[in-house]
Predict the 3D structure of the following.
Amino acid sequence: MKATQERRRKPRAPLDSDAIIKIGNDRLACRTLDVAVRGIALTGTMHSKPGDRMQVEFKLPNQRDWISVNGVLVRGEQRRGRPVWGIEFQNINHRTVGQIERYVREFLVGEARERYQRRQANVVQPRLTRPPRNPVVPPRKKPAPQKKSGPKSQYAIENNDLKKIFKAAIDDLEK
């Protein structure tokens, strides 16, 4: 199985669905195991040898239509007691490539997200200490009013001067 992984040139995503293989006039039902842009792995009874040309029909999840692709059997092996067939796609159209790429990418992104979430769940988070429920807060003191200081303008009038001016104005009115 390790040798199989080394031969792969494109990322794969598991795919568990029905498939039909057409070899000449024969139609064989089988199951898909995984899929990539360049090929598919199937399991089922097939009497073929590497190099045989065939047509593979399968369906991706959330797709309405079946995908039909020509391919070549590149290997057959036993995996966990069942026959596994590796088929390399031939002359695949751009639309089909896009559908498979999207499916594999969504799987890889979802798998990476799940791995990250599992890692985060295993990391011990530091426990934050909570403040007491009814903390005692000392009353705030009001700041003392500050006197304005700074250079006085030539037009500035002191409070005492204002009192004198108003008093003089009132005296003038009373006279």
